[in-house]
Amino acid sequence: MSLPVEKAAITTHILNLESGRPAADVQAYLYGPDSSEPIASARTDADGRVMQWDAPVELQPGIYKLQFAIGDWFARQERDSFYPEIKIAFRVANTREHYHVPLLLNAHGYSTYRGS
Questions:
Q1: Which PANTHER family does the record cross-reference, listed alphabetically (predicted)?
Q2: Are 28 and 13 in contact (CB under 8 A)?
Q3: Domain range annotation of the chain
């Protein structure tokens, strides 16, 4: 029996709606409030998730951004994508909460929502 993976304060999950499969090995960057450079980065795992970042993330109130290198991911599959990257901005109000930001995508569109 494996131990559960501890989650970062901000996590994400990407699902390719065309195939119904997770989008594994997508490069993701996390930007903090007032940050022009990423505060952390990661690649999605085999289940399309980022549960931990390459740097600790300590929440502060403000606007955060997730950026996904979607064009590169589609190109590795020898497919075109309308969007070279996807940026999602969201507000962190309560620093004691967990923020999960899923991304549902295909080569020509995407949607997102606040997950649990």
A1: 5-HYDROXYISOURATE HYDROLASE, URICASE AND TRANSTHYRETIN-RELATED
A2: no
A3: 10-112
How would you class 23 by CB atoms within 10 Å of its CB: exposed for 0-12, middle for 13-18, buried for 19 or more? buried
Q: Are 89 and 103 in contact (CB under 8 A)?
A: no
Residue 8 DSSP class: P
Q: Which two tokens stand for residue 3?
A: 């131990």
Q: Under DSSP, is residue 75 helix (H, G, I), strand (E, B) or coil? A: helix
Query: What is the bridge-based pairing of β-strands 40-43 and 10-16?
Result: unpaired
d(CA 10, CA 58): 9
What would the pLDDT profile of 54-94 be if each residue is shown by its tens digit?
999 999 999 999 999 999 999 999 999 999 999 999 999 99
Which of the 8 DSSP states describes residue 115? B
**CATH, domain 10-112, list 3.30.70.100, 3.40.50.300, 2.60.40.180, 3.90.1640.10:** 2.60.40.180
Classified as helix, coil or strand, 12 is: strand
């929502």: which residue's tokens? Answer: 113
CB 7 within 8 A of CB 51: yes
Give the number of C-alpha atoms closer than 13 A to the C-alpha of residue 89, restricted to the C-beta side. Answer: 5
